[in-house]
């Protein structure tokens, strides 16, 4: 009987020790937190990870980098970017990772802390490049200059992009235009369209540029002619109209491509109608007019 009592006492003591074991509690909290994170239940995960991190710290246990990362990403989902920054930084102190660097950068982007982004790039650029993320670095530098509105910075970082997207190219074009380099912008746009005929934003930019250029020129020449209608002025007008028509034809090609891609877009229909009128393409202009009714 006494032996049974001793065994029961040992079992009770072991159970007590086991149930009060902080490591066991930590592992249990971590398991539940990870499960919530995996299910994208970020509010619950965020609370659990905060409790977990406090438990690690109280027990002087090294906090796994993954725990910091999961907690940081949960904080992002809770729109607590200031805390996410702190957590991503802690994760990177434990272990440098692509996930940690990109998470930290994204948090700084949300807080519009562009100088901090540049600091992160300087600190981790070599690691990113070594891990085949050079394109990410170049894209980030470009986007950082865009966010700051630094026109010269946009131009210099754009040239380093490995495979610029249409949106990035359009930013480059608008920056050239903003710096008074409109002709260069249009020439660049034309070259881009040759390589990427499906870039509709670029085609629209080119079409509108040539249409407006021709339209302004046409109105100026007509105004001059109407002030003094004579044979010499008429001959001069006919010569200029021929040059102007060449610009309308460039616009026509682009607007036709845009209309084909977006046949219900009335903006392109209107432009095409007016372009056809200027080029004396009456039947085509009438067809566009029907589409506007």
TrEMBL record:
Gene3D superfamilies: Tetratricopeptide repeat domain (1.25.40.10). It comes from the Bacteria. This is Tetratricopeptide repeat protein.
């Amino acid at each position: 009987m006494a032996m049974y009592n001793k065994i029961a006492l040992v079992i009770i003591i072991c159970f007590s020790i086991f149930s009060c074991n902080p490591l066991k509690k930590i592992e249990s909290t971590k398991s539940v937190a990870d499960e919530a994170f995996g299910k994208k239940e970020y509010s619950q995960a965020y609370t659990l990870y905060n409790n977990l991190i406090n438990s690690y710290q109280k027990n002087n246990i090294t906090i796994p980098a993954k725990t910091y990362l999961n907690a940081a990403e949960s904080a992002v989902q809770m729109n607590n970017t200031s805390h996410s920054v702190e957590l991503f930084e802690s994760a990177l102190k434990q272990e440098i990772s692509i996930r940690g660097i990109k998470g930290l950068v994204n948090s700084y982007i949300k807080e519009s802390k562009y100088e901090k982004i540049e600091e992160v790039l300087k600190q981790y650029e070599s690691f990113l490049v070594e891990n085949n993320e050079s394109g990410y670095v170049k894209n980030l530098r470009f986007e950082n200059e865009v966010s700051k509105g630094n026109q010269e910075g946009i131009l210099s970082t754009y040239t380093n992009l490995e495979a610029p997207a249409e949106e990035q190219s359009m930013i480059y074009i608008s920056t050239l235009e903003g710096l008074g380099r409109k002709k260069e912008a249009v020439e660049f746009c034309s070259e881009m369209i040759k390589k990427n005929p499906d870039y509709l934003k670029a085609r629209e930019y080119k079409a509108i540029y040539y249409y407006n250029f021709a339209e302004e020129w046409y109105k100026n020449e007509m105004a001059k002619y109407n002030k003094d209608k004579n044979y010499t002025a008429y001959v001069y007008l006919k010569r200029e109209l021929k040059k102007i028509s060449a610009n309308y034809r460039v616009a026509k090609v682009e607007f036709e491509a845009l209309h084909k891609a977006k046949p219900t877009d009335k903006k392109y229909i209107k432009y095409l109608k007016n372009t056809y009128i200027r080029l004396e393409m009456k039947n085509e202009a009438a067809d566009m007019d029907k589409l506007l009714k």
